[in-house]
Automatic annotation (TrEMBL):
InterPro entries: GH, GH_1_N_CS, Glyco_hydro_1, Glyco_hydro_1_AS. This is 6-phospho-beta-glucosidase. It holds the Pfam family Glyco_hydro_1. It comes from the Bacteria. The active site is at E370. NCBIfam families: PRK09593.1, PRK09852.1. One of its GO terms (cellular component) is cytosol. GO terms for biological process: carbohydrate catabolic process. One of its GO terms (molecular function) is beta-glucosidase activity. It comes from Trichococcus patagoniensis. Belongs to the glycosyl hydrolase 1 family. The keyword Transit peptide does not apply.
Length: 475
């Protein structure tokens, strides 16, 4: 592995920060997604948050209260030897309604303090500009990314970050898991549907607006500082064919194309032929402005960020048999793989396959910005947490990552496993679905002391970083 490899960890503001109205912050779309029976329908944009009953629990409001524990948490990152920390900025902490002319100084000061603290511990900040959250006012007033006005609101927001943190932050990502817009529209992009709307047309028009916003942000960033490294970010994981039947192979190929759609535009600078044909078949005609295609073409990203939790499988012969779910993507169960408690199939070799697919396709550096195992950890009587299953999962994935770099020639910037500290699960809203090296005393209902304690994996990952991966290498 390269000597400057960025080992670290990752979180999102809406799953970790809390302080949902502190420091002048406004409400974000994620702040109105409850835990429990209504969560899925709201995330899918099928039920309006305004129609929910009172008394529901909203886990983003406190999350793990990183807002007040931030220095303590960064000290733990420093103790592990982190080289990088990938985190997101809460848009509504900077522009509470999204429409202000000037950013909220208290919000900018919070993140500047956080960045300075990271730099003091020699940790490279890696910022996701938009990680699933949109100022709620922009949803209520404009319909979020359904509306072209969002491009300018986003550009103003991104510019405020670029200008304030110029010289302190080098790595940026415009949108987290941008392809999630097609799968969980409200959670991913603040999109819901009116009765009678063509949902597919709405989603692809919204996608165009996000892609234009990403290209415009890239342009603004490079004008401010040409050394900024701007990345895209996709929820990745290759689709396998269930059998060698040509129709299965074709179906897997088509599913992979669908998943690459956003990154094809952000990295290659134009809409791919397969997507144009799909929209033609669906009768979708994107509304564009003069200069849109040129903006996309001239402002492609520098690197490809991606999350990887599991591979996927599709078949055409018996497509409804034995379906499981991994990171929101329904998939046939692969008989060769084990699965986590939440049904996510564990496939370390799939990481190497995915890395090769992305590197071959785009010929740009990759950055693994999410990877991890959600599990229900047990605190022993002596307070210890023996998460050997997490160590086994990450060790196997790191080994395949090393092989992709050293044997296959993949150019990889860094590795920031998801939820280096326990945080609220985005998909389920639970705390018991834990990913971290650090345990947070908090239950699904928000009860607990918020006290942080180290798991067995804490010292294990510390050694991985100290040896640049050599401590877990398997020949």
């Amino acid at each position: 592995m390269r000597k400057d490899f960025l080992w670290g960890g990752a979180t999102a503001a809406n799953q970790a920060e809390g302080g949902y109205l502190s420091g002048g912050k406004g409400l974000g779309t994620v702040d109105v997604i409850p835990q429990g029976e209504y969560r899925s329908a709201v995330m899918q944009g099928l039920r309006n948050y305004k129609e929910l009953p009172e008394g529901l629990f909203y886990p983003s409001h406190e999350a793990i209260d990183m807002y007040t524990h931030i220095k303590e948490d960064i000290a733990l990152m420093g103790e592990m030897g982190f080289k990088a920390y990938r985190f997101s900025v809460a848009w509504s902490r900077i522009f509470p309604t999204g429409e202000e002319e000037q950013p909220n100084e208290e919000g900018l000061a919070f993140y500047e303090m956080m960045i300075d603290e990271l730099l003091k511990h020699h940790i490279e900040p890696v910022i996701t500009i938009c990680h699933f959250d949109v100022p709620l006012n922009l949803y209520n007033k404009y319909g979020s990314w359904k509306n072209r006005k969002m491009v300018d609101f986003y550009a103003k927001y991104a510019k405020a970050l670029f200008e304030r943190f110029n010289g302190k932050v080098r790595y940026w990502m415009t949108f987290n898991e941008i392809n999630m817009l097609l799968h969980l529209p409200f959670m991913g992009a603040g999109i819901s549907f009116d009765e009678g709307e063509n949902k597919t047309a709405v989603l692809y028009q919204s996608a165009h607006h996000e892609l234009i916003a990403s290209a415009l942000a890239t342009k603004i960033a490079k004008e401010i500082n040409p050394d900024f490294q701007i990345g895209c970010m996709i929820a990745a994981g290759q689709y396998y064919a269930q059998t060698s039947h040509p129709n299965d192979v074709l179906a897997a190929n088509q599913k992979n194309q669908d998943n690459f759609f956003f990154i094809d535009v952000q990295s290659r600078g134009e809409y791919p032929a397969y997507a144009l044909k799909f929209m033609e078949r669906e009768g979708i005609e994107l509304e564009m402005q003069d200069g849109d295609l040129e903006l996309l073409r001239k402002n492609t990203v520098d690197y490809i960020g991606f999350s990887y939790y599991s591979s996927r499988m599709i078949g055409t012969l018996n497509p409804d048999t034995d379906v499981t779910s991994g990171n929101v993507f329904p998939t046939l169960r692969n008989p060769h793989l084990q699965a986590s408690e939440w049904g996510w199939q564990i496939d370390p070799v799939g990481l190497r396959i995915t890395m090769n697919a992305l590197h071959d396709r785009y010929q740009k550096p990759l950055f693994i910005v999410e990877n991890g195992l959600g599990a229900n950890d047990t605190v022993e009587a002596d307070g210890s947490i023996k998460d050997d299953y997490r160590i086994a999962y990450l060790s196997a994935h790191i080994n395949e990552m090393i092989k992709a770099v050293e044997l296959d020639g993949v150019d990889l910037i860094g590795y920031t496993p998801w939820g280096w500290i326990d945080i609220v699960s985005a998909s389920s809203g639970e705390m018991k679905k834990r990913y971290g090296f650090v345990y947070v005393d908090l239950d699904n209902d928000g009860n607990g002391t918020f006290e942080r304690s180290k798991k067995k994996s804490f010292d294990w990952y510390k050694q991985v970083i100290a040896t640049n991966g050599e401590s877990v290498r398997v020949q």
